[in-house]
Amino acid sequence: MNIVVCVKQVPDTATERKLNAKDNTLDRDAADGVINELCEYAVEEALKIKEAHGGEVTVLTMGPAKATDTIRKALAMGADKAVHLVDDALHGSDALSTSYALAQTLKKIGFDLVILGSESTDARTGVLAAMLAERLGAPQLTLARKVEIDGSSITIERLTDYGFDRVQASLPAVVSVVEKINEPRYPSFKGIMAAKKKPVQTLGIADAEIDAAQVGLSGAWSEVADFAVAPPRAAGTIVKDEGDGGAKAAEFLASKKFI
Amino acid sequence: MAEILVLVEHVDGEVKKVTLELLTLARSLGSPSAVWAGPGYSEAAKARLAEYGADKIYVAGAQDIADHVVAPKAELLARLVSSASPAAVLVAATAEGKEVAGRLAIKTDSGVLTDAVGLSDGLVAEQSIFGGGVNVKSKVVKGTPIVAVRPNSTAPEASAGAAAEEQVEVELSDAAKAARVVERVAQDKGARPELTEAAIVVSGGRGVGSAENFAIIEKLADALGAAVGASRAATDAGWYPHQFQVGQTGKTVSPQLYIAAGISGAIQHRAGMQTAKTIVAINKDPEAPIFELADFGIVGDLHQIVPNLTEEVQKRK
């Protein structure tokens, strides 16, 4: 089975994240780039499926040159090879542009199964898997907390507000996973060493037949017009519980008309 | 006035609060048309939508629409976008709502904005990103603006609408039917409001100590008519079901009031609750970062404070 995992490099949430005042896009130099956490769960799930059903795991990322660190992490976990879509023309792409560029690349490299994390910690749009399914005409099996494959049939448990839905489709399909699905493995020393020798194919937009007019800042369907750092929350009242903490909290809630 | 489509969220035939918020917001921008997708439409539902200003209600009641993941709703909306040429489409910024918006954006070659907390003239959306650290104003520059609006961003206000009904038949494409829901499994959550749309959320974390102890969190939530949330530490420990996890890899909530009990306030958690209007924190560690966010903080043992608070709330009811 040809499994492609889409991964994204994001700014570390433990550091200060910024937008670039010049063009209102993510400032990738302001913070350390790390693999998006949910992408690790996607890689783990791909590796598990490969271990159970055979095949090959390809990591696909769209991002600047320094996103190779993220590719290496996924390869060190056990993915077989990687495709890095990198082109200056992609800078500033929104969700629609990104889904278009990734869909074009996926059509080029082929897949039986595409796996993504359900959202990224930077944009948090949560739309990419649905968009890829739409663009690829493939079944959408998103927000999976469990994935089962039987021949060409795939069944997931889709997390919902009331519990979960069991959803079934035929391969090829697009799957997104939530954090509950597994426990991502740590790359072993051997894995880290092996990752250095694994093939990474670099593609530009022309290689993937991506129309420049539909990507980047100028091709995007939406734009950030303006932004401002949120004012810090005003310091609140902190009291020590002297047996009356509950009563004091109730007074506060009453003063705000919550009770 | 320009027509604004609002996708109705409904459970067991009942219109969810977020839809009333969206209708209220849509009224400030144009003439709201509610779009009902799937079975369950009734006179009661119609009355509710009319009460909050729906000038028109498109009803597509086919079972098919609910039996497949997201795609049929996007097809229905795409059809209405093409026939009604609305000024915008609003959906709730729930996990499913955002997925509908994403697919609709591609079908109609339109831009999409997710997690809007406000929407003003010219359809400029306000968004709060990086866990509430940065406020941005953004807009759609191609196609029909599709905006996923976060629950609790607008106070619902009643204002009668004409509620002219129009039945819509949709012939779903094979692609839309590709992922089939074969079973729905409800897990116990009692009568509590849904987490992402609750006006009040009471969350427990590591400090709660055990699954059994979550009963005191639930009691406080029930006294306040609130939803229960949990930190990742609590769900990882198996003390509370995963779908109630608030945080970076869980749900984002934006309630009027958020009460964090026994939660230290790690970035993972803050990313999911930082935009709550009022935050109350209970923690025995005075250095816990959650206190930096709290409008009111109590340093002490939640096992004493939470039951006392519950009692006080019940007394004042």
UniProtKB/TrEMBL annotation, chain A:
Lineage top rank: taxon: Bacteria
Cofactor: FAD
Residue span, Electron transfer flavoprotein alpha/beta-subunit N-terminal domain: 23-212
Signal peptide start-end: none
A family per Pfam: ETF
Gene Ontology cellular component terms for the protein in this record: cytosol
InterPro entries: ETF_a/b_N, ETF_b, ETF_beta_N, Rossmann-like_a/b/a_fold
Family matches, as Gene3D superfamilies: HUPs
Classification via SMART domains: ETF (SM00893)
Keywords from the named record: Electron transport, Transport
Keyword Electron transport appears in the UniProt entry: yes
Record-level Gene Ontology MF annotations: electron transfer activity
Keyword Transport recorded: yes
Family indicated by similarity: Belongs to the ETF beta-subunit/FixA family.
Oligomeric and partner information: Heterodimer of an alpha and a beta subunit.
Function as written in the Swiss-Prot or TrEMBL entry: The electron transfer flavoprotein serves as a specific electron acceptor for other dehydrogenases. It transfers the electrons to the main respiratory chain via ETF-ubiquinone oxidoreductase (ETF dehydrogenase).
Protein name per its UniProtKB record: Electron transfer flavoprotein subunit beta
Organism, scientific name: Sphaerisporangium siamense
TrEMBL record, chain B:
Key words of the record: Electron transport, FAD, Flavoprotein, Transport
Subunit structure: Heterodimer of an alpha and a beta subunit.
Entry's Gene Ontology BP terms: fatty acid beta-oxidation using acyl-CoA dehydrogenase
Organism: Sphaerisporangium siamense
Main function: The electron transfer flavoprotein serves as a specific electron acceptor for other dehydrogenases. It transfers the electrons to the main respiratory chain via ETF-ubiquinone oxidoreductase (ETF dehydrogenase).
Keyword Transport: yes
Database matches in Pfam families: ETF, ETF_alpha
Annotated InterPro entries: DHS-like_NAD/FAD-binding_dom, ETF_a/b_N, ETF_a/FixB, ETF_alpha_N, ETF_asu_C, ETF_asu_C_CS, Rossmann-like_a/b/a_fold
Family designation: Belongs to the ETF alpha-subunit/FixB family.
Co-factor(s): FAD
Protein name: Electron transfer flavoprotein alpha subunit
UniProt binding sites for FAD: 206, 231-232, 245-249, 262-269, 283
Cofactor remark from the record: Binds 1 FAD per dimer.
Record-level Gene Ontology MF annotations: electron transfer activity; flavin adenine dinucleotide binding
Gene3D superfamilies membership: HUPs, TPP-binding domain
Domain Electron transfer flavoprotein alpha/beta-subunit N-terminal, first and last residues per copy: 4-185
